[in-house]
Amino acid sequence: MSAVLPQHGSHDHDHAHDHDHGPLKGWRRWVFATNHKDIGTMYLLFSFAMLMIGGILALCIRAELFQPGLQFFNPELFNSFTTMHGLIMVFGAIMPAFVGFANWMIPLQIGASDMAFARMNNFSFWLLIPAAIMLAGSFFMPGGAPAAGWTLYAPLTLQMGPSMDAGIFAMHIMGASSIMGSINIIVTILNMRAPGMTLMKMPLFAWTWLITAYLLIAVMPVLAGAITMTLTDRHFGTSFFNPAGGGDPVMYQHIFWFFGHPEVYIMILPAFGIVSAIVPAFARKRLFGYTSMVYATASIAILSFIVWAHHMYATGMPVTGQLFFMYATMLIAVPTGVKIFNWIATMWRGSMTFETPMLWAVGFIFVFTIGGFTGLILAMAPIDIQLQDTYYVVAHFHYVLVAGSLYALFAGVYYWGPKWTGVMYSEVRGKIHFWGSLIFFNLTFFPMHFLGLAGMPRRYADYPMQFSDFNAIASVGAFGFGFMQVYFFLFVVVPMMRGKGAKAPQKPWEGAEGLEWEVPSPAPFHTFENPPKLDATATRVLA
C-alpha cells in the first residue's frame, strides 16, 4: 500500500509545483493548450480566419451579381460559392466564435478555475482545423466544391462529385467538436460555480450558453444522421432520399430542418447573452426582468423544436400542417419580443453612454428587430409561398445572422477585449468600424427585401434587367462591409494583441458588474485557484 501512496509531504510539494508554472513557451503553448483562455483565443482567431474565407466567397457572389449577365463565374461555380459561403460562415465562423467566447468568459463569470475537461477542450478545438481544410479545400477536388446549397438538399447532393463526401466528413468532425464543447460547458456551469453563485444569480451569458449547449447536444446528431443517410445513398446502395428506389427527398428536408431551426437559435442565444451583459453596463442599471429573460431563453429553446417545417411550406404540406407551423412560429416571436422589451426597459431612464460596445449592442437590437419582423412575415404560410427562395429570405436571415450574431460578437470583443489583452482599443477606430459596418450592411441587405418582393430568386448567377439597380447597390455595400472587417482586424484587433494602446484598468466600464472584473487586466493565466466567496448579488468578491 505504501508503494502506491505518495510519501508524506510530497503531495503538497507537487501541488505547489503544478501551479507555479505559467504557459508553455513558443508553439507548444498553443498546440498543447489546456488553459481556457488560450483555447478561447484560438477559437476566436480560427473563426475570424473562416469569416475572411467565407467573406471572400460572398464578395465573389456579389461581384458576379453586380450587373446582369455572366461576368466572372459559370453558374455551377457560382452555386459552389453560395453553398460553401453558407457552410463556412455557419460552421466555421459563427459557431466557433461563440465557443471562443464561452471558453474565455464562462470560467471567469462563474468563478471557476478553468473548464471542466481541459484536454477534451484542446481536442475539440484542434478537430476544427482538418475539418476547415477539408471544407475550404473542396474547391480543388475533382468536379469542384459542392454546389447543392448550404442545406445540402437531396437529390442534388446525390449527384455531386467527391467533394460532397469531404464536406460530409468535415461536418461530422465539426459536429463532434461542437458536442464535446457543449458537454464541457454544461459540466463547467453545473459543477464549478463559485460558492454563493446559484443558477439564478449567474450572468445571462452563462445561462444562454448553458441552454445553447443542451440544444447542440440535441440537434447535432440529427444533422449527422441526415448527412450519413446522404452518404449511404451516394455509395452504399440505400434509397433514403432517392425516389427511384422508393426514397423521399422531402424526408431529407424534415430531418435537416429539425436540426436547422434549433441551429438558428444556437447561433443567436449566446448573442443575447452578450447583449444582456453590455446594455446594463452602459445604462448603469441592473438588467430589467432577469428572471423573465432566463425563462424566455428556455422557451425559445423548447419552441425551436416544433417550428422546423416553416422552411417547407412550398413542399405540398397539408393545410393543417401549414397552420400548425405558422402558429408555432408566431408563438416563438413572443419570448424573443420579451428580450427586446427587457433590453429597452433596461435602457429606459438609465445614465447611458455610447462607447463602442454599447453602439454595437444598440445596433444589434435595432437591426435584429428588423430581421425578427421579416421572420414573422415569412412565418405566414400564404406570404411565404410567394416569397419562398427569393432574395427576401436572403435579406431576412442575413439581418438575423450578420446583424444578430456578428454584431453581438463585435460588441463582445470591444467589451471584454480589454480584459483579454490588457490594453484599451482606440475608441475612434471602434466607432469608424461600427458606423461603417452599420451603413454598408444596410446598403447591402435592405434592397434585397425589395428584390425578393419583386420576385428575384436566390442562388441564380444571372437575373433580368429590372433587378439591376438594387443589385448594384447591394454589391457596393457588400464590398464596403467586407473592407470594414479587414479594417477591424488590422486597426483594432492587431494593436490590442500586440499590447499597443492605453493600459486597461481592471474594470474599464463604470457600470459593469460580474466576477470577470474582479481579476486584473489582462486576466492572469490562472484565475480563481481558490473559489471566490461572493456577496449576496453574486457579482462581487467578498474581501
From TrEMBL:
Membrane topology qualifier: Multi-pass membrane protein
Pathway(s) annotated for this protein in UniProt: Energy metabolism; oxidative phosphorylation
Residue ranges of the region described as Disordered: 1-22
Similarity comment: family membership: Belongs to the heme-copper respiratory oxidase family.
Record EC number: 7.1.1.9
Composition skew (Basic and acidic residues), residue ranges: 9-22
Statement: the UniProt record of this protein carries the keyword Electron transport: yes
One cellular component term from this protein's GO annotations in UniProt: plasma membrane
Entry protein name: Cytochrome c oxidase subunit 1
SUPFAM superfamilies: Cytochrome c oxidase subunit I-like
UniProt keyword annotation of Cytoplasm present: no
Major place of residence: membrane
Catalytic activity: 4 Fe(II)-[cytochrome c] + O2 + 8 H(+)(in) = 4 Fe(III)-[cytochrome c] + 2 H2O + 4 H(+)(out)
Keywords, alphabetical: Cell membrane, Copper, Electron transport, Heme, Iron, Membrane, Metal-binding, Respiratory chain, Translocase, Transmembrane, Transmembrane helix, Transport
Transmembrane parts of this sequence: 43-65, 85-104, 125-148, 168-192, 204-227, 264-282, 294-313, 325-345, 357-381, 393-416, 432-452, 472-494
Species of the source: Pseudaquabacterium pictum
Origin organism lineage: Bacteria, Pseudomonadati, Pseudomonadota, Betaproteobacteria, Burkholderiales
Function statement: Cytochrome c oxidase is the component of the respiratory chain that catalyzes the reduction of oxygen to water. Subunits 1-3 form the functional core of the enzyme complex. CO I is the catalytic subunit of the enzyme. Electrons originating in cytochrome c are transferred via the copper A center of subunit 2 and heme A of subunit 1 to the bimetallic center formed by heme A3 and copper B.
NCBIfam families: CtaD_CoxA
Matching Pfam families: COX1 (PF00115)
